[in-house]
Amino acid sequence: MTSNLTRRPSLLWFDLTHDRSTKELIAQFESTCDCKLTKNSLLPHGEQADMICIHFDRPDTPGLRLLLEIKRTTPTIPITMFTVQHSEELAVWAMRSSVWEYMVLPLSSTERKRYLTAVVQLCELRRNANGLGQTSQIDHAPTLPDSIRLTSGHQKHQALSHIMLYIDQHFRDSIDQRDLAKRCGMTTFRFSRLFKEANSVGFTDYILNKRMNFAKQLLDNSQMPITSIGYEAGFKDPSYFARAFKQFANCTPSEYRLARQLRAVAAQPPLEDTTAEVLESLVQSLGS
Q: Which of 130, 225, 236, 275 is 20 to 30 Å from the Cα of 183, by its Cα?
C-alpha cells in the first residue's frame, strides 16, 4: 500500500480558457502528478487536492472573481494560476490575492521542473503533521528576469524561443504544427496566431522561406544536381520545388544558378596577355 507521504501530488484543474485548452497543459504534468479536470469549472463537493490549478489564456473579470471564490471556499488548498496573457498588474493582483504560484505560459522545461519540485516539497510538508505552517520554507521563487519591463513583442519571442531553435534545426524535415503547439502547451490556433505575431509571417511561409534560402546557398556554393538540392532542402517533389522556387526567386533553379555563374565570371579580372597566350596554347595542344 502506498504511503500517504510518498504518493504523487494531486492537482485539481479549472479550465477558464476561451479555447478550452487545459487538457493540453495537463499533459505536461500527468507523468508526475495525478491530475483531475473539474466539470463546468465547479468545485466538486468535498474534493481533496494538494493543489488547485486555474488555467487562463486571457484572464477576465468573471474568471478572476471565480479564483477569489475558490480561494475563499477552500482556504487550506494552495492555488497556482497559469496564464498566457501576462502583465505586471496581473502578477501583482495574484500576489495580493495570496496565489501560491503565478506561472506564465508556455512553460520552459526549466520552469516546469522548478515548479514540480516545489509542488512535491509542498505536498510532503502538508501531508506531514509536523509540517503544518511550514510552507514558507519552500523555495519556489523563479529565476530572475532578464529585464524588469518586457515589450509585448519580446514576450512573444520569449514564448516561442525554444521552438524557434527546434525549427531552425529541423526545417528540412517534416514538421507538424500541431506537435509544436503541444510542446508549447497551446492549441494549434493559438500557436499559429502567436507565431505570426512574433515573426510577421505565418508558420508555413516561414518554413518555406527557410528551405528556399537553404536551396539558394546550395545553388551558390555547390555543383549538386538541382533535383538533389530540392531533396536536401526538404522538398520531396522536384516539380513542386521548381514551381515554388520560381515563385520565390522569380526564376527557376537552373536560371538562378546560371545567372550566379555569369555574374561570377563577369566579376573576375581580365587575364594578362601572357597568361592568355599560355591558356590558348594549352587548349590548342589538347585539341590536336
A: 236
